[in-house]
Amino acid sequence: MELLFRPRRLRKTDALRRMVRETHLRREDFIYPMFVAPGKGVREAVPSMPGVFRLSVDQLVLEAQELVRLGLPAVLLFGLPLRKDDTGSEAASPKGTVQQAVRQLKKLLPELVVITDVCLCGYTSHGHCGLIHQGAVDNDATLEVLAQVAVSHAEAGADLVAPSDMMDGRIGAIREALDERGFEMVPILSYAVKYASSFYGPFRDAAECAPAFGDRRSYQMDPANAREALKEAALDVEEGADILMVKPALPYLDVIAQLAAEFDQPIAAYQVSGEYAMIKAAAQNGWLDENAVMLESLLAIKRAGADLILTYFAKQAAALLGK
Fold this sequence. Notes:
Shape: globular
Distance between the termini: 44 Å
CATH architecture: Alpha-Beta Barrel
Radius of gyration: 20 Å
Number of strands: 12
CATH superfamily: Aldolase class I
Helix content: 25-40%
CATH class: Alpha Beta
Order of helices and strands: HEEEHEHEEEHEHEHHEHEHHEH
């Protein structure tokens, strides 16, 4: 039989494979999540996330200098408070860990894009992402507090704010508050499609934000739903979101692809703590090649349609891609 088409012809050598490669990873694709802790000289390892640390501001700046050296463009900051209360009051404090970190980073590393997580779960004594009224999260009462948090981050110098709470209407409330305070040029990276996922466990250890009661299924999305993702994203676009995020990434590649096909806004995807921890654990057991699997997983997220990837592998990937 004569074969007219032989796809293997273009796979014959590494040089040929590189020439016809459809998807490429770049260091500019990555955003590195970081945890800011109170105090000084703090570098506390997160046991369930090897290579990830809770860092005080002075240590975080040193880490950020390494990120810039590696060519990484951006960080996402999560804060740990000195103390928690029912309303998460420290989240909007000018003296909060995130606000302090933003000011130092923008002073010392102005070229680094600093993104801040806007949520209350790490600051509330109950661990939920909003204010509690009669045993449930009060959506509308939470919006004003989230807007205050976002404004406090913008005042500190944040380049983007990233609300992760999944309250209805939060993008509009934050956009209005930022514009009223003269921050109309601060973009919003929306956790538009955030699922009530089982992959968040290690993050909740790192950020110390597990719910004290119940769960977050009443405000985060049902993992079974894909059409709803388009509705959530469309609402956020109407309210002023500049970038749309899907979280987690690998279990929801289909959703990333749907958003990329539907919307003109840049699409971000968050390779979350559980995805990171699984690869790390399997590699430590010798069950797979960590670097190869890590890069393949990131490539899959990019191939699905993500323009930006939030990943705890950012440093490791950047070092490899820089070779």
